[in-house]
């Protein structure tokens, strides 16, 4: 009995599916792709560009900035010496503060309740007192202790010296900045050590590695990835925080700027001088932080992304290769002649 439905023979094209047939309505190929239009994003970008252009125009045209005065003082001998003092304060406080902070961090991680209590109390006190109060306190230390001596505790003193002769103005500033920085550095280091998997220490102990070597060769290199970002921010904050020592009449950057504009009355351009130097120093510290973080990320990322300098070099090489390709002479191709004849 013949079938009521016609079946296409094998290999025959189904109607509506041939090479020239239009796609079916439910076929994804028939859908028109329309890119998303982010009108709000474009409006926000235009608004930001307009505001940035207004700000730059104001910097260039507003006579209050007095760019001539800025050029006269930005590289003057007095300002450069003040920048050097600022760098000295930052370097001493950073190195000594993180050394003391590392000791305090491991004291807090110790199993001794005495060490834990002493470290916690130190961090609590020095994080509670403002830096300017600490600096003024250390500046007036001779009012509390006229002499500093060496001898038996609670017993006779064998050797003593006037406190002012040991701790001068610069020394008081370094001590105040160091002790203040150590309290924050201790928590930064402790957070990085806690972030290391405890199984690393267990494996090192099973191999018989001494405790000090475990910390120096296993714990700290891994903890540096967690320590460096926060430590970098803290060092940058310390660089700007050295301006507080102006209360001690130390010739750092902000103090010298104050002295100069106190004499000539050019407040705005002199503040701009200080701002420019702080921006330059902060940028250099940020670049150093980037490369140090990149170095300690080698264990976790075997193929780190290229640095900005490497990207710039690659871009220059690409431009040179494209220019060389354009300047290369074009050699015309030979057209084949009749059969058996090549011209």
Layout of SSEs?
Elements: H1 39-61, H2 67-73, H3 77-108, H4 113-128, H5 131-139, H6 141-144, E1 147-151, E2 157-162, H7 163-166, H8 169-194, H9 198-206, H10 211-241, H11 253-264, H12 267-296, H13 308-327
Antiparallel strand pairs: 1-2
Helix pairs in contact: 2-12, 3-4, 3-8, 3-11, 4-8, 5-8, 8-10, 9-10, 10-12, 11-12
Q: What can you tell me about this protein's structure?
A:
The protein has 343 residues and is mainly alpha-helical. Helices cover 65% and strands 3% of the residues. It contains 13 helices and two strands, in the order H-H-H-H-H-H-E-E-H-H-H-H-H-H-H. The protein has helices at residues 39-61, 67-73, 77-108, 113-128, 131-139, 141-144, 163-166, 169-194, 198-206, 211-241, 253-264, 267-296, 308-327; strands at residues 147-151, 157-162. It has a two-stranded antiparallel sheet. A hairpin with a 5-residue loop joins strand 1 (147-151) and strand 2. The longest helix is centred in the N-terminal third of the chain and has 32 residues, at 77-108. It is extended, with a radius of gyration of 35 Å. Residues 83-289 form the ABC transmembrane type-1 domain. The chain crosses the membrane at residues 39-59, 79-107, 119-145, 165-186, 235-255, 267-292. Pfam families: BPD_transp_1.
Number of strands: 2
Number of alpha- plus pi-helical segments: 13
- Please state how the strands of the largest beta sheet are arranged side by side: 1-2
Proportion of residues in β-strands = under 5%
Overall pLDDT metric: 82
Please mark out the parts with pLDDT under 50 across 5 or more consecutive residues, or reply none.
none
Q: Span from first to last CA?
A: 72 Å
What general outline do the C-alpha atoms trace?
Answer: extended
Helix content: 55-70%
SSE run: HHHHHHEEHHHHHHH
Please identify the structural class as seen in this structure: mainly alpha
Biggest sheet features: 2 strands, antiparallel
Radius of gyration: 35 Å
Biased composition (Low complexity): 1-16
Protein name: Amino acid ABC transporter permease
Family: Belongs to the binding-protein-dependent transport system permease family.
Main location: membrane
């Amino acid at each position: 009995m013949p079938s009521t439905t016609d079946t296409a023979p094998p290999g025959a094209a189904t109607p509506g599916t041939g090479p020239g047939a239009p796609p079916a309505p439910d076929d994804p190929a028939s859908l028109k792709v329309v890119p998303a239009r982010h009108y709000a994003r474009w409006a926000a970008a235009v608004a930001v560009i307009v505001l940035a252009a207004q700000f730059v125009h104001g910097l260039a045209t507003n006579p209050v900035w007095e760019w001539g005065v800025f050029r006269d003082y930005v590289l003057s001998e007095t300002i450069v010496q003040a920048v050097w003092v600022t760098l000295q304060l930052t370097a001493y406080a950073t190195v000594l503060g993180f050394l003391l902070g590392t000791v305090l961090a491991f004291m807090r991680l110790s199993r001794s309740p005495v060490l834990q209590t002493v470290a916690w109390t130190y961090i609590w006190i020095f994080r509670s007192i403002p830096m300017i109060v600490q600096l003024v306190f250390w500046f007036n230390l001779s009012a509390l202790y006229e002499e500093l001596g060496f001898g038996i505790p609670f017993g006779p003193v064998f050797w003593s010296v006037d406190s002012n002769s040991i701790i001068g103005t610069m020394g008081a500033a370094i001590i105040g900045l160091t002790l203040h920085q150590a309290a924050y550095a201790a928590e930064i280091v402790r957070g990085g050590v806690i972030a290391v998997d405890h199984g690393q220490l267990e494996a090192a102990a099973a191999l018989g590695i001494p405790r000090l070597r475990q910390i120096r060769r296993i714990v700290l290199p891994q903890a540096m990835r967690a320590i460096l970002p926060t430590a970098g921010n803290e060092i940058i904050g310390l660089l700007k925080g050295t301006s507080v020592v102006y209360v001690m009449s130390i010739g750092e950057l902000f103090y010298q700027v104050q002295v100069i504009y106190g004499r000539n009355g050019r407040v705005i351009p002199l503040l701009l001088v200080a701002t420019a130097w702080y921006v330059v120093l902060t940028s250099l510290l940020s670049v150093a932080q980037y490369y140090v973080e990149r170095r300690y990320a080698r264990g976790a990322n075997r193929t780190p992304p290229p640095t900005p300098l490497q990207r710039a070099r690659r871009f220059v090489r690409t431009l040179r290769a494209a220019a060389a390709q354009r300047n290369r002479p074009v050699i015309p191709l030979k057209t084949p002649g009749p059969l058996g004849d090549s011209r």
